[in-house]
């Protein structure tokens, strides 16, 4: 029973780390999948397979080498010198990602709760600083509560969408994009999100006592991510192209289902953003502790201030510019993990 609970905790943490601002709000799904029409069903399937394979490899390899942070894993993959350089690049990427998470929280408060944009930013920062005092246990606990609720809400939205006249658009909608761009999108998306999940999945894998538990947690988590991707794509496709005008498209869909559903979904979106933000800050702090002698709380506070300043550019503009760029930078890392994992898996 303890192993089964641990598998679920790993799976929920994996899902919760990936289901951040862009995913939970719907912006990522629109940009990387839905805009490509019916082909998105196949690209989502490709992403799901990659999430299962590479997520499991990342955690089992981290356990095998006893990695304390994602920098330890990078040094193992690329060597001491080049691994340190890769970790510095990822540090920049993760700070950019956290800025997007923070901007997403501000957009949720502004667009759905009618608070000031800055209010959402400050509440998220203050709450994260308090939660981070408890470390990994708080991350596991948050995701064990939030992810099951998000899965149930996704099922509700799919059920309601199935009754709409345009419910079949996910298999009939066409796009005018080239095939290379269609098939590059899931690779960029998966590579970026795997790097985003590294700060939590690496120490989580290394702190788990069983390789089988880690592997099954990765498989279950990757499958859950795929199911949430396809459900969000299904709901968004039925409402295209009008739904693309919203900063929080999934929040707009929830609003159509009634005020009570909207409130619950908006709260869940914020909690997903919040949990991902906390997880990323935690991982960055662990990595910087290996490079500096500063107190962890001072490191955390400094990172949050930087993210706050960057979040002033807004959510959708950051998402559309930074995510594809980050994805390209992360493709190289994902390819290395894939090749390294294939040979290392025979020894695990």
From TrEMBL:
Keyword terms of this UniProt record: Membrane, Transmembrane, Transmembrane helix
Q: Transmembrane stretches, by residue range?
A: 7-24, 36-54, 85-109, 115-132, 139-162, 182-204, 216-237, 257-282, 294-315, 321-342
| Source taxon at top rank | Bacteria
Q: Does the keyword Cell division apply?
A: no
On whether Transmembrane helix is a keyword of this UniProt record, the answer is: yes
Matches recorded under InterPro entries = YkvI-like
Q: Could you identify this protein by its name?
A: Putative membrane protein
Q: Which organism is it from?
A: Paenibacillus algicola
């Amino acid at each position: 029973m303890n192993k089964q609970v641990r598998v679920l905790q790993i799976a929920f943490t994996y899902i919760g780390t990936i289901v951040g601002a862009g995913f939970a709000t719907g912006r990522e799904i629109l940009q990387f999948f839905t805009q490509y029409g019916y082909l998105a069903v196949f690209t989502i399937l490709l992403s799901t397979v990659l999430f299962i394979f590479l997520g499991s490899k990342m955690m089992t390899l981290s356990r095998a080498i006893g990695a304390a942070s994602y920098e330890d894993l990078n040094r193992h993959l690329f060597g001491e010198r080049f691994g340190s350089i890769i970790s510095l690049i990822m540090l920049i990427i993760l700070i950019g990602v956290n800025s997007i998470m923070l901007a997403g929280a501000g957009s949720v408060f502004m667009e759905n709760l009618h608070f000031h944009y800055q209010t959402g930013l400050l509440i998220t920062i203050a709450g994260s600083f308090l939660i981070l005092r408890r470390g990994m246990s708080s991350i596991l606990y948050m995701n064990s509560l939030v992810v099951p609720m998000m899965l149930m809400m996704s099922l509700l939205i799919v059920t309601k969408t199935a009754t709409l006249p345009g419910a079949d658009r996910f298999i009939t909608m066409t796009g005018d994009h080239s095939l290379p761009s269609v098939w590059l999108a899931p690779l960029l998306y998966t590579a970026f999100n795997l790097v985003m999940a590294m700060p939590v999945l690496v120490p989580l894998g290394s702190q788990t006592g069983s390789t089988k538990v880690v592997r099954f947690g990765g498989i279950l988590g990757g499958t859950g991510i795929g199911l949430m991707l396809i459900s969000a794509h299904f709901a968004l496709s039925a409402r295209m192209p009008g739904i693309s005008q919203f900063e929080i498209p999934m929040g707009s869909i929830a609003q159509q289902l009634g005020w009570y559903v909207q409130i619950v979904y908006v709260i869940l979106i914020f909690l997903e953003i919040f949990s991902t933000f906390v997880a990323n800050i935690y991982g960055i702090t662990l990595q910087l502790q290996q490079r500096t002698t500063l107190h962890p709380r001072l490191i955390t506070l400094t990172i949050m201030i930087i993210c706050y300043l960057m979040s002033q550019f807004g959510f959708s503009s950051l998402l559309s510019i930074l995510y594809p760029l980050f994805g390209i930078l992360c493709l190289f890392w994902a390819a290395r993990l894939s090749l390294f994992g294939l040979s290392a898996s025979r020894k695990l």
